[in-house]
Amino acid sequence: MKTRCNWVDQTELMQKYHDEEWGVPLHDDDKLFEFMVLDAFQAGLSWSTILKKREGFRRAFDGFNAVKIANYDNAKVEELMQDESIIRNRQKIVATIKNAKAFLRIQKEHGSFDKYIWQFTGHQTIKNHYSDSKELPATSPESIAMSKALKKEGFAFVGPTICYAFMQAAGMINDHLTTCFRYKE
Fold first, then answer.
1. How confident is the model over 97-123, as pLDDT tens digits?
2. Fewer CB atoms < 10 Å away: N or C end of the chain?
3. Superfamily for 26-174?
4. Which helix (H) or strand (E) holds 127?
C-alpha cells in the first residue's frame, strides 16, 4: 500500500488528484489558470468539495478558457448563479471574470502566465521537508509576494493563503510529506 500525505482522504478522487496532479510542476498556462480559478472558489471550503465539482466548473466556465470567461456579461453571471454543478458565489464568479482579464493582460505583457507566475519561486520548485501535515504553513514569503503582485495586476480572491495553496497545487512548492511516496518524485 502507498504511503500518502496524511491530509489525503480515502476517496478515489482525492487519491488520484494527490498522486497525479498535486505538487507536479505545472507550466501550461491553461492549466495554471484552471488552478487559479479552482483555488479562488475553494476559499472557505474543503478541497474535496471543489474536486467533486471540478467537472461542473469545467463545463460551466467553458473549459476554463480565459478568453471566453473575460467576455462574460451580467446575463452569464446570472446563468452561473443558477448552476448547481458549481459553487454559486457571486463574488467568486465575478472575480473569475476579473481574473481572466488580468490573466490575459499578464500573458500579453510577459509572453506567458507561466513565465510571470514562476518568478515568485525563482523559476524552480521550493522543496520543503515536513513529516506531518500539521507542520504545513498556510502562507510563505513567496505566497505573500505573489498575492500582493496579483492584486496589483487586478486579480481578486488571491490572498496569501489562496496563493500558497495554488503554489502547492502547481508544484511551485513541494509540500508532499517526507513519508509520502510522491515526495522524492
1. 999 999 999 999 999 999 999 999 999
2. N
3. Hypothetical protein; domain 2 (1.10.340.30)
4. strand 126-127
